[in-house]
UniProtKB/TrEMBL annotation:
GO terms for biological process: fatty acid beta-oxidation using acyl-CoA dehydrogenase. It comes from Sphingomonas sanxanigenens DSM 19645 = NX02. Pfam families: Acyl-CoA_dh_1 (PF00441), Acyl-CoA_dh_M (PF02770), Acyl-CoA_dh_N (PF02771). Keywords: FAD, Flavoprotein, Oxidoreductase. This is Acyl-CoA dehydrogenase. Belongs to the acyl-CoA dehydrogenase family. Residues 3-118 form the Acyl-CoA dehydrogenase/oxidase N-terminal domain. Coiled coil: none annotated. The lineage of its organism: Bacteria, Pseudomonadati, Pseudomonadota, Alphaproteobacteria, Sphingomonadales. InterPro entries: Acyl-CoA_dehydrogenase, Acyl-CoA_Oxase/DH_mid-dom, Acyl-CoA_Oxase/DH_mid-dom_sf, AcylCo_DH-like_C, AcylCo_DH/oxidase_C, AcylCoA_DH/ox_N, AcylCoA_DH/ox_N_sf, AcylCoA_DH/oxidase_NM_dom_sf. Residues 122-198 form the Acyl-CoA oxidase/dehydrogenase middle domain.
Length: 386
């Protein structure tokens, strides 16, 4: 690992542990995530500490994916760390996409406020299953767009849109006659209406997860991201690294949960000795170390592939499956080790369990990624027979 990444990561870790962790009981943490007031307060502290948006350098260039993994893992040591350091989803993935595809004017208008931590963003892709819309299969997209002079008109419904409430930048996916398209929009916009905020088991992301109606949204043609019909290609540019970024951040939280469980098991006595000296407990913590190390190795391997310039779709699918499942095992064991305390709000262990459980669903559930990998296995086999 590079010296610059290690130095940035060390600063981020110190900041998160010393400044951000005490905020984990703040009254501004609601059922649908932290308030925007709290987010901006935390970002002001990160700005002062020199750790705001640490994965993007002063000249606008990004750390490599391997370097980013080192930094984002440290930011994830608290559920609030990524929000404070501006490394959280969906902003981190949206910044990456805009940096790769956006025009200079689009970057100045939409990307720069995100990098400075002055605004939040939302990615409008997923649609309600009850309407037959796009979920894990984006080809089912129902949201439509049509050209009207020098504007595009967009109509449709979206669901599970993280952070839409309070966001200032939106990336909206819709389908034209050419295929999928992406549009940059200023938020709020009266044509983008929140139907409801869903109640979900996770609550670390500001604005929660919304169901959205889009009714006659007019977007200037120069706010299309890239070209008409290229939206699915751009989605892969965003989603492959974003899946890996989730792995990085939630590994940080799993590390912290494991630290708390270890401390509990070493201090708590039962039947005449510390819990950790009982094999049933000690072996669970040993399994945690194994899963955490395997997750780290998988992240590093996938990051190395992405750093070669390959999109690494198959690799990111493998990493997403392996890491999300491994981290959930870690979180589950931490709860089990701590018993009643593990399911209480006395520590962040129960939140880690909820957040990491949700991680196994979003950005593609485990089964969808395995299905995709199975298709690749079949294609490769056919190619080998030709």
């Amino acid at each position: 690992m590079t010296d610059r990444a290690l130095a940035i990561a060390a600063n981020v870790e110190t900041f998160v542990r010393e400044v951000i962790v005490p905020y984990e009981k703040d009254e501004r943490l609601g059922y649908h995530g932290p308030s925007d007031e709290l987010v901006m307060e935390l970002r002001a502290k990160a700005r002062e500490a020199g750790v705001l948006t640490p994965h993007i350098l002063a000249d606008g260039s990004h750390l490599t994916q391997r370097e980013t993994a080192t930094v984002l893992t440290r930011s994830g040591l608290s559920p609030l760390g990524p929000l404070a350091c501006n490394t959280a989803a969906p902003d981190e993935g949206n910044m990456y996409l805009l940096g790769k595809v956006g025009t200079p004017d689009q970057k100045a208008r939409f990307l720069d406020p995100l990098v400075r931590g002055e605004a939040r963003s939302a990615f409008f892709m997923t649609e309600p299953a009850e309407d037959g819309g796009a979920g894990s299969d984006p080809s089912m997209m129902q949201t439509a767009c049509r050209l009207d002079g020098n504007h595009w008109i967009i109509n449709g419904r979206k669901k599970f849109i993280t952070g839409a409430e309070g966001a200032r930048v939106g990336i909206v996916m819709a389908k034209s006659d050419d295929g999928a398209c992406m549009f940059l929009v200023d938020l709020p916009d009266p044509a983008i209406r929140t139907v409801r905020i869903l109640d979900t088991i996770d609550n670390s992301m500001p604005g929660g997860h919304a169901e959205i109606d889009i009714v006659d949204l007019r977007v200037p043609a120069d706010q299309m991201l890239g070209a008409s019909g290229e939206g699915f290609k751009y989605a892969q540019i965003r989603l492959s690294p974003a899946r890996l970024s989730h792995c990085m951040r939630w590994r940080g939280l799993a590390i912290r949960a494991n630290e708390i469980a270890i401390d509990y098991a070493c201090r708590r006595y039962a039947f005449g000795k510390p819990l950790i000296d009982h094999e049933g407990v000690g072996f669970m913590l040993a399994d945690n170390l194994i899963d955490l190390k395997q997750a780290e190795t998988m992240i590093d391997w996938c990051a190395s592939i992405l750093d070669t310039g390959s999109l690494g779709t198959a690799e990111s699918s493998m990493a997403k499956v392996a890491v999300s499942d491994a981290l959930f095992r870690v979180a589950d064991r931490c709860v089990q080790v701590m018993g009643g305390t593990g399911v209480s709000g006395d520590t962040i262990v129960e939140q880690a369990f909820r957040e990491i459980r949700a991680f196994r669903i979003y950005d593609g559930p485990t089964e969808v990624h395995k299905w995709s990998l199975a298709k690749k296995i079949k294609r490769d086999w056919k190619a080998a027979q030709a």
